Amino acid sequence: MVKGIVRRVIPGRLLAEHEYLLRRVLAILYRGNRHRCNICGYGLRAFIEINDEDRLCPRCGSSSRARRLYMILENEVNSEERILHFSPSGAIRRAYELRSDIEYTTTDYAGEFTADKCIDITDIDESENVYDKIICYHVLEHIEEDKNAIMELFRILKPGGSCFVQTPFSEEMYEDQSITAPEDRLINFGQEDHVRVYSVEGLKSRLTEQGFRVEVLVMNGDIDEYYGLYPGEYVLKAHKPR
Ligand SMILES: [Zn+2]
Fold it and tell me: Strands 48-51, 43-44: parallel, antiparallel or unpaired by DSSP?
C-alpha cells in the first residue's frame, strides 16, 4: 500500500534510481550488528519499520517478503540455470545480476520496474521449455486472464522446473469481472489495479488445473528479528512434472 501511494506521486523508474543512492547514505546511519539483510549482506542496528508486516533494509531497499523469497531461492537456484523474474524486486534483481553462474532475465509489462524485457504474461514471446525457475510475485492479481497467464508460465518452464508464485491472499477467493472502475477495485480487491483476491486454495487449484503440482510453503513461527521476516506468509511452489 505504501509503495502504491509513493508510485502514484513519483514515477517508478525515477524513484528506483534515487532510492538506491539515498539508501547508500541512509545505510550508514543504520549500520550495526543486531540484524542482517540476507540479500545485500549489510549488518544493521535496525530495519526501517514500514508497517506490522514489513521492514525495509535501508541499504538495498528489500522488503520482508523479498528477503523471504531470496532465502527460499538460495536452496532452489542452481548454477547454469535460466531464471525468469516478473516485476522483480530491485534488491533481488541487483543481487542476481551480479551472479555470472546463472542466466537471469527480468521482465515487466507496465514499466513500473527496471527490467530486461517487456513481456505480456498472457502471451509470452518465448519457446516452450526454456526456463528452470520462474518468479511470479504479486503479478497474477493484476491479470484478468490469469488462466492464460498460468498456461503460459507452464509452457515456458522446463519439465522439472518450478515457478514461485505469491499474491495477496484472503480466506475466500473473490472475483467479479464486471468490477472495472479503479475505485471499485480498491474497495472489492484491495488495490485500484487488482482484478481479484485469491485464496491460497483458489490459486493452488488454478495452478493445478494447468498441470502444475503445487506445494504450499507456509511460513510459521515467530518473527525472525535477525533477518526482519514475518510469519504468516504463503508461497506457492508450482512444479512442472517431467
Ligand atoms: Zn539489504
Answer: unpaired
The structural domain count of the chain equals 1
Does residue 49 lie within any of the structural domains? no
- The answer to whether position 143 is within a domain reads yes
Rounded to two decimals, what is the model's pTM?
0.89
Asked, for residue 233, whether it belongs to a domain, the answer is yes
pLDDT of res. 5: 47
pLDDT score recorded for residue 23: 80
Provide the CATH number for the domain around residue 119.
3.40.50.150
Ligand 1 center from residue 43 Cα (angstroms)? 9
Q: In the chain, which stretches have pLDDT less than 50?
A: 1-3, 5
Residues with CB under 5 A from ligand 1 (ion): 37, 39-40, 57, 59-60, 62
Contacts of residue 181, Cβ cutoff 8 Å, sequence gap at least 6: none
* Greatest CA separation for the chain: 52
**Residue 158 falls inside a structural domain:** yes
Separation of CA 67 and ligand 1 centre (Å): 8
Provide the phi-psi class of 234: left if phi over 0, else alpha when psi is between -120 and 50, else beta. beta
